[in-house]
Amino acid sequence: MGEPGREQRVREEATWRRATFLELFFDLVFVFALNQVSMRLINDFTTGHRLLFSEAAPTFLLFLALWMLWVSTVVLTSRVDPNSWPGQIAVFMTMAGGVVMAVAVAQGFEQRALVFAAAYVAARISRQLLNAIVRPAQRAPIPLKVSIVVGAVPWIVGALVDDLLLRAVLWALALALEYGGFALGLGRTVGVPVAGEHLAERLQQFFLITLGEAVFVSGKALSDSDFGIPHAAGFGLAFVSIVLLWRIYFYRAGAALPLAITRARNPDRQSVAVAGSHLLMIAGVVLAAVGFELDIIEPHGRPEPQWLIAILGGPALFLAGRALIELQVFSRVSRSRLAGLFTLGLLIPATWYAPPLTTGAAAATVLAAIAVWDAWRARGRELEPPAPRI
Fold first, then answer.
1. How far apart are alpha carbons 79 and 199 in whole angstroms?
2. Which of 133, 160, 193 is the last residue of a domain?
3. What's the start-to-end Cα distance of the chain, in Å?
4. DSSP H or E run through 102
5. Residue 112 pLDDT class (50, 70, 90 cuts)
6. pLDDT at 190 (0 to 100)
7. Is 10 helix (H, G, I), strand (E, B) or coil?
8. Domain ends where: 193, 226, 244?
9. CA 218 to CA 231: how far, in whole Å?
10. For the CA atoms of the chain, what is the radius of gyration?
């Protein structure tokens, strides 16, 4: 469990560039959680061929809670040695809460709302109690403590009320408090630096997990189909799109992310900004995975305009987050990202009455054009060093 006194140490600089086996084990919970979120979203988009805000918003709230649980743990293990016994206990307690939350996701806003909320609150507060008991070198900032404790009230009250709209309002309030506390509190831990390279690597790993989940969703959709040519074409289109998302993410800015955090004038503020950008990108990929499923199971289906939220909105959300990452790393945004967002917007009226496979092909073409433009610009050029503004 580690030598005596090790629990008093912050994460050693020698381990900044790698995730421990415990952290990789921790991620397995969120592989399952992302799958549950994707399945719930697919149900939102396909049940009755209608999508109302009241149907999709609860899934988004559940996703935000899972993301906060993951990213707050990553920040913790980017400061405190995860191989110390308090670090291991904190990670395992979070894993236990994450597993229960993931199991409850399918009905996490309905019949299992109390299970979901109680698991989340227990995971968040138990870490603070452990921190108070063992008194490690890193203590949670006051804004973060307050947001967690105060936010627990609307979580539990929201789970107990019967009105789903009121539950959504209360849970949205709780998340706003916690996200605000996270952003304000991250930069207020004196003397304990964030391991920037480690944090960047963990965010990259979670992005890859999200791409893997998109592959799983697409493969399952093809497996459940009759393997007809249109379905196979939809799967091929989904696979190409996933590869393009990977390529666009890692081209320059994604690869230079670790240096961008460590070279920032305020690494803590840069970490908050980068985590927010990854939230957008990961949400975009999760949404795009729903679009991939629609391309496969309904390649020539009757056009449903609300499906454009997934087929075009997913890639658009990813590009928006990717543009922010570029701004945070290089203090600029490539024209190809902005052109891609503009083109996806133009595709909305153009594909309003088009079947999913046609719309998905149009979205993939936009992503391919961005990747080709990136490759063309990279010819004979030296790697650009990070130049963060923060």
1. 9
2. 193
3. 38
4. helix 85-104
5. very high
6. 45
7. strand
8. 193
9. 10
10. 21
